[in-house]
Each structure stands twice: as structure tokens, then as C-alpha cells.
UniProtKB/TrEMBL annotation:
Lineage of producing organism: Eukaryota, Viridiplantae, Chlorophyta, core chlorophytes, Chlorophyceae
Residues annotated as transmembrane: none
Protein name listed in UniProt: Elongation factor Tu, chloroplastic
GO biological process entries: gene expression; response to cold; ribosome biogenesis
Domain of life: Eukaryota
Amino acid sequence: MQVLNAKMTPRQAGRSIRTSGMARLDAVVPAASWSGASTAGASLASRATPIPRMAPGIAPSRPQPNIVCRTATVDAPPAAGTSGGSSVREDIRNIAIIAHVDHGKTTLVDAMLKQSKVFRDNQNTAERIMDSNDLERERGITILAKNTAVRYRGIKVNIIDTPGHADFGGEVERVINMCDGVLLLVDSVEGPMPQTRFVLRKALELNKRVVVVVNKIDRPAARPEWVIDSTFELFMDLGASDELCEFPVVYASGVNGIAGMTPDGLAADLEPLFETIVKEIRPPTVAPEAPLQMLCANIDYDEHKGRIAIGRVTSGTIRRGQTISICSSLEPGKVRTAKIAELFVYDNFSRVPVEEVTAGDICALSGIADIKIGETITQRENPVPLPTIKVEDPTVSMTFKVNTSPFAGKEGKYVTSRNLKDRLDRELERNLALRVDPGETSDSFVVSGRGTLHLGILIENMRREGYEFEIGPPKVITREVNGKNCEPYEEAIVDVPENYVGAVVELFAQRKGEMVDLIPSIQGASRVKFRIATRGLLGLKNALLTATRGLGVMNTLFLEYAPVAGEILMRENGSLVAHETGQVTSYALESAQERGQLFVRPGDQVYEGQCVGVHAKAGDLKVNVCKTKQLTNMRAACRTGKADLYAVQVGLDEPRTMGLDDALEYINDDEQVEVTPKSVRIRKDPSAANKGRKGK
């Protein structure tokens, strides 16, 4: 039996509870032993209470002792590489907002901007102001990390809004070096999710101070105590230090712009959140008289100013018109010079031109046409580079190649292999998590990323810019570990109503997934956790939505490389393949729809080898969707332009709309996606057919 005493830190007490089957409370941990007003969890019970071992994340069915986490007052250590001439900039706080997708990061930033009087009272502002990209607004997610700044009582707070989806984790790794602390947003109902673990691990590795914000506290099913306990467990699982485990907590509703130090004591605005940021996030410790060093963490582009480098001045002072050196720790001895044309800082949701920026602040500068992310801007004499930015390796790859379909060149503006290579090279300059390698032929390129969504966003951006090309099926990247061929594995968490848990478990079992945990949730929903090969997740999203009637929600996180799971059946059904090139007719679809579900409608143009539907059985089937009924001249004249009317008369089924994401999930190894600015088509890969003939 383990005894908890008042001398234990919250992390030690938590570990004692987790590592013993029973625990007895010897004394209440005195609140006065820690400074700060924020509480991470409820107070310890004053009487002995048995604590059974439970699966992580399961809410207790009866009252159990929680651990008190309070803020410890710790002096800020001097910055690395600084000498006795260092000083603390009390006028600045640098923070990044990190969280799982849809936990309300961008919405909270909107509220912080509005309450900081950045906008006029009569100024019209859109929702999710920071999501300026068209794709971000359409999909409702943050894709690119962005900088802004607000002022609170004379203190400038630099804010970095980061993506929440696992596929864009490289954005988080890239910008988190610029901040001194992070706001970790956790949903008041869902609690810590897979991406919460990923972003928190990155913050803890860099010893960043963490302020936990329990967001969406106004939800009817909010359970803040369970969320705080689960977050505390996550800190311990990630090996956080005692100091970092004593995190302050703020309860907030970003959409309503309110916050408080307790769930029931919310203020009328975000004042408690701003107070906590200023109090808990350490001001930067800098050496303004030391040699200049600034790591380029992000790149923007302006039509008039050209390439703009964004980063935090680590030491020294940078001035407009100054001649500087650019170097990298990856290329020792290679130095080039440039001149700063313009210099900006972020202030009140805009870039403000300045003459100089001192260490500790985040700035943007122009004038360096060839600057790259990870390079260091230093003084001209004796340049010393900072460690470059490192991100985790890609796990999924696709082949980009020139379009060779019969409709090639009809809709796109950039269609050659040179256009394709130039565009991918430009993407590499900004997207650190991306890799581009030569393909099997001179007009193909193997593009690797964090997942199908990561690569899908790139493909969608390219087609909107006028590019036309073909995409091969997604494939996982294997590597050799201890002499064994290994592939990436991921943790998949599925939130699903109880009625469909069996269907979800069966679906994952078919793809060699292992159920790790089943957590009964609230309001009739359950949370099922799986360990599954990344290869098994390809094409699983649509199958999961079908099995759960659209009610299942899946989130994933990379775990490890492990031995290959063996053969996985990716798709049971074959494809309906067009027999000839021509225009789709209602007469032909009347018989073709009996063979499966179609992708095309009357009047569409198709070509031989194009996939026009899903076969109801295994194996592909060629169908003629262009055949016409033999008519006399009079009957043909009467039927001209009445294809839609005929389709209604014969009862044609509504075709399945295949967007880019759907097409990437659907294709098999012998298929590819044709992408143009106007169309997304699926076709059989001619090279795969030729290989099959040679094999025979």
C-alpha cells in the first residue's frame, strides 16, 4: 500500500497512485505549498479511499481523489549561449496555441484579437480570422501556422496559431521554437486526443511552459475534472518534469469570448486568460549586445516585397538596411551575404514596419531572395549558425507524373514535367515535412508526406493554380530496423455510438488492426482505441462512415515502426471501366447501373480505361456507357437535348460524386487519379496493364 504525504509533488503523487493497486491518503496536500491561483483538478480527499486500477482515460464510476496541480514560481533560466550580459524582456510574451483538431484554437485567437481592440467596433470581421487560406475556410481546419500579436496592459503578446491535424504536425514542429510557452487547448468533453499527445510531446521536449485551457466549457456535457485528470496523466506518460506537471489551468469558451479560473466562475471576457499568460509564461531572456542570430522558421510571399522570412531574433539586434550573412548548420563553411530591405514586427493583427528589432521579439524581413526555412541570419563578421529545424520523417508517398490520358492538355495550364518539378521544388522550400524524389521515369516524381490529407492539400492547391497531372495510389514508406522490414503503425481512436462498436471492431480486424482499449463514454457513445498499420488506414475513412451510418469519428497518431503486418485487403469491390471513348448516354446507364454504383451521369465525356463506377462484385468489369439506341431521324430529333428527362423516365440512380479525397481513398494499386483544374477522374494505370502482359 502506497502512502501519499504532503512533501510529494503532484507528479510524484500521481505516479504513486498509478503504480499501486490501492492508495491511502495520509494528509491533504496543503494548497499553500504552491504559489498561484489556478488548480489542476479537485482537492485531495481527506479520508482514506481505495483506488482500483483502471484503464487510462476511463472516468471513475465513484468519487476518487484527484491531484492538486498548482503553479510553482520558478526563476527563468538564462537563454542558451548567453553570457552575463543577458537581460529579461518583461514587455514581451511569445506563445503558441496548440491542440487537437477542432478543439477551438483559431476561434479562441479570434476572441483574443477582438477583445484586444484590434478591430473597430463597427468593422465587419469574418469567422476564423486567422484562417485566411481558401482551403482552410472551406474545410474548417487550420493548415498553415500563422503569426499575430496583441497588446495587454502594455505587454506585447506574440501569438502563433498552429494546425491541429496530425498530417500538419510539421507546421507545429517548425514554429514552436519561436515561443517561450504554449497554450494547450483541450475540449471539455473529448479531453486529450491523439494530436494533443503529439503537440504536447514536442512542447515538453523543448521544455516549454504549458498553460492548459479547458475550452468549450459551456457545452452541456462538459466534464472538466475528468479532462484535467486525463491531461495530468498525459503529462506523466510523456515524462514531463515536476515543474511542467504543475501546470496552471484556465477554463474558457472561445466562441463566447469568456474565461475563468474555475468552471463555474467565468468572467465576462478573456481577462483571466490574459492574466495567466502574462503571469505564467516566462518573458524571453536575451542578450541584446551579443552577435546577431535569427533562425528562419517560416516563409511568406508578397507580390511587391518578394520572399519574406519570419523568425525570432535569438540574440543581438537586426536593423533595416543592415548587411547580414546567411548560413546553416547543415552546410558548415558555406556563407552568403544579403541586405535587409524592409523589417516588420507583428502588432495588432498587422505587420508594422520598424527600423530595428531587438532579441526576444518575432519579426519578418524582406530582401533575401533565396532564404530557406532552417537557415540562420547572423552578423556579417564571424557568422555562427543556430541548430536547424528538424521534423519527423514522412510515412506515406504518392507518385506525381505528367497526364497521359486521352483528355490530357484540354483543361490545364501547366502540363509538362518541368512545370511539375518547378512547383514541387517551390513547395519544398516551405513545407519541411515534404520529400520529393525522382520517379521511375523522367516525367514522374515520388512525393512523400505525413499522410493522405497532407498530400491531398498540396494536390488541391496545385489543381487550383492550373496544374494538370496524374497521381498514383498512396503507399507507406518502409524501412529496415534491426535487419527486419518494418512499416509505420498508428494509434487510431474511434468515437462511435455503442450500437456500432461491433461493426467498427470487425472493420479494423479485417485490416489487421488490434483493439487496445474500449472506453465507455457519455451520452451513449464509446471510444475504441486500435493499433493498426498505416497501410490498413488507407481507404478506411469511407468504409468507417458506411459501417457507422456516418456517425463514426476517427483520429490517428503515428506510433512506431514495426514488422510488416502481412497482406491487407484494401478493397473488396472492383471497378466498372469504360469500354470506349465518347459521351455518356442515359440509355447505356440504364443497364450499366445494374452492375454497381456509377460515378458518371448522362452527358459526361469519358474515355476508354476510365473508371466510371464501383463493381458490385470483386474484379473489374468493362461496361459500355456510351452506346445509343438506334432511332429514326424523326425520333432522334424529338429526343435531342432531352437526356435528363429520359433519365428521370427510366429511373436512373443518382451517381456517386467523387471528389479528390474520395478518389485518393478509392484507388487500388493498378489505378491512378487524373487531376485537372476542372475535373477529377479515376483511370486504370496503363503501365500496370503493360507490366501484367509482360508477366504473362
